[in-house]
Design goal:
This protein is mainly α and 121 residues long. Helices cover 79% and strands 0% of the residues. The two termini are 23 Å apart.
């Protein structure tokens, strides 16, 4: 069985791969950066442990996306995390830096809707 093989063809599969790789690599990478520098906890005013929990949740959700039946709950959680990231950027008066989180939110919602539409057929 190929990873993400049970996803619909073409664009949804590419989006699922993009999200999987970015969260599976990004979560641990950001956790490592935070462990060394405390850059994000100082900038956003969060405890480092909270950020570690968020990065761990991103990694776990990326693994959950490998199974199509778990993808929608994983995408819902990742969307909540992305919305929290956008809110954090607005809170520190840096709205333009929230644009990547907005892009992730849009892709995650679109993919969840595509998967849901495929399940109802």
């Amino acid at each position: 069985m190929t990873i993400l093989a049970d996803y619909p063809p073409a664009a949804p599969r590419a989006a699922a791969w993009f999200l999987f790789v970015s969260y599976a690599v990004g979560g641990p990478a950001f956790a490592a950066v935070e462990a060394v520098s405390h850059l994000m906890s100082e900038r956003f005013g969060y405890w480092p442990e909270f950020l570690y929990a968020v990065f761990l949740m991103q990694f776990v959700c990326s693994l959950m996306m490998l199974k199509r039946r778990l993808a929608i709950p994983a995408l819902m959680m990742l969307t909540l995390i992305s919305l929290g990231a956008m809110a954090s950027h607005f809170r520190i008066h840096s709205p333009l830096t929230s644009l990547p989180a907005l892009g992730y939110t849009a892709v995650q919602v679109w993919l969840a809707l595509r998967i849901r539409r495929g399940e109802s057929r």
